Amino acid sequence: HAEEELSRSNPGKSLVNGIKTNPASNSPKSSLPAPAGPPVYVDLAYIPNHCSGKNTDPEFFKRVRASYYVVSGNDAANGEPSRAVLDALLEGKAQWGENLQVTLIPTHDTEVTREWYQQTHEKQQELNIMVLASSSTVVMQDESFPACKIEF
């Protein structure tokens, strides 16, 4: 009961094999695999961290199966969007076992997304992946930006 009491009074710490651990201090890229489970199907998924390679790998796309993925990266200096993440989409989608249509929505026209689109176009078609190029623009006061309308 003392261990249960410790966990309730201090949720950030827990006992593992009698040793105090602090999960918050673990690195985000743990060597432990994510627990197995069924894939999650969603209409729309935002690729984490502006499509940075820090947190997204093929496992994300194997497990989070979306009709639409939003790629918002526009910071080449920080590797956003990451070519590795876009390639991970192809790798993860190839594991689905069902050829559902997927639409990729880049919010910015970047050199990385253009090159990836051109170099992997055949693979995209094979996997039923469509990349949406927005030709619409929203104008608000002093700024304008590309827009995309999605209907479910």
UniProtKB/TrEMBL annotation:
<dbReference type="GO" id="GO:0003779">
    <property type="term" value="F:actin binding"/>
</dbReference>
<dbReference type="InterPro" id="IPR036866">
    <property type="entry name" value="RibonucZ/Hydroxyglut_hydro"/>
</dbReference>
<dbReference type="GO" id="GO:0043025">
    <property type="term" value="C:neuronal cell body"/>
</dbReference>
<dbReference type="GO" id="GO:0005829">
    <property type="term" value="C:cytosol"/>
</dbReference>
<dbReference type="GO" id="GO:0031114">
    <property type="term" value="P:regulation of microtubule depolymerization"/>
</dbReference>
<dbReference type="InterPro" id="IPR026074">
    <property type="entry name" value="MAP1"/>
</dbReference>
<dbReference type="GO" id="GO:0005874">
    <property type="term" value="C:microtubule"/>
</dbReference>
<feature type="compositionally biased region" description="Polar residues">
    <location>
        <begin position="19"/>
        <end position="30"/>
    </location>
</feature>
<dbReference type="GO" id="GO:0007409">
    <property type="term" value="P:axonogenesis"/>
</dbReference>
<protein>
    <submittedName>
        <fullName>MAP1A protein</fullName>
    </submittedName>
</protein>
<feature type="region of interest" description="Disordered">
    <location>
        <begin position="1"/>
        <end position="34"/>
    </location>
</feature>
<dbReference type="GO" id="GO:0030425">
    <property type="term" value="C:dendrite"/>
</dbReference>
<dbReference type="GO" id="GO:0045202">
    <property type="term" value="C:synapse"/>
</dbReference>
<dbReference type="GO" id="GO:0016358">
    <property type="term" value="P:dendrite development"/>
</dbReference>
<dbReference type="GO" id="GO:0000226">
    <property type="term" value="P:microtubule cytoskeleton organization"/>
</dbReference>
<dbReference type="GO" id="GO:0005875">
    <property type="term" value="C:microtubule associated complex"/>
</dbReference>
<dbReference type="GO" id="GO:0008017">
    <property type="term" value="F:microtubule binding"/>
</dbReference>
